[in-house]
Input
Amino acid sequence: MNIITPTADGSNTLYNETIGEHYHSKHGALQESKHVFIDAGLKFASAGKTEISILEVGFGTGLNFILSHQYCTENNIKLHYTSIEAYPLARNLIEQTGYEAYVPKEIWASFIANYDAALKGTQSLSPLCNLEIPHIQLADFQSTRKFDIIYYDAFSVQHQAEMWSDEIIAHACSFLKAGGTFVTYAITGKLKRAVKANGCMIEKLPGAPGKREMLRAIKAVEDNSDTIYTT
Ligand SMILES: C[S@@+](CC[C@H](N)C(=O)[O-])C[C@H]1O[C@@H](n2cnc3c(N)ncnc32)[C@H](O)[C@@H]1O
Output
């Protein structure tokens, strides 16, 4: 059972009774999503680009998606958004989050209209945005595609330790392009070592309110002729 719960910035989140955790920070769902995924992830990784692909782990309410859609539309960036979700929420619960207040109405309307279909395959929400939500466990997800950005938004290690094991982090990192960006709200020594072991250079950034730090990692460029980052 998921219960709609307000957070400190006035935006709602869901509390998952089975896992015993909220979908977002209690200090502010909207500000966490903007800080970690949009500002540290998308704005950083899409600078100078006209097209971007994002792989998210944990679609949940779609808050990260609608904010990404809005940012890409406003900046004329073509967005390919793939978000793995093992336990999709019912559309009518997503409609009760109040998140429609945070994005232009066309973005919200196209999201709600396409949500159920996106769980079955890729949908075009606008000329600048495709969305697919593979209904699968991360461990079972396979793709020949690689992505520019990974939004790693699993429940915390305290509540879902298997989502932070070395093996599952390696599996997630295998979908990152050379030069691609991995961002998450969490940061632990174990996570830093796991991400580094997968060829990424790590950065500690100030965390969203309520968290001191967060992790951003950049995958090394394999072709030395245009190396930007090295491990
Ligand atoms: C912290 S919430 C994600 C919040 C989401 N990004 C949002 O903006 O609402 C974690 C999500 O991971 C999903 N999840 C849990 N186990 C998973 C697994 N093994 N594979 C993929 N998704 C999983 C949960 O159902 C939940 O939607």
Summary: The chain has one domain: 28-226.
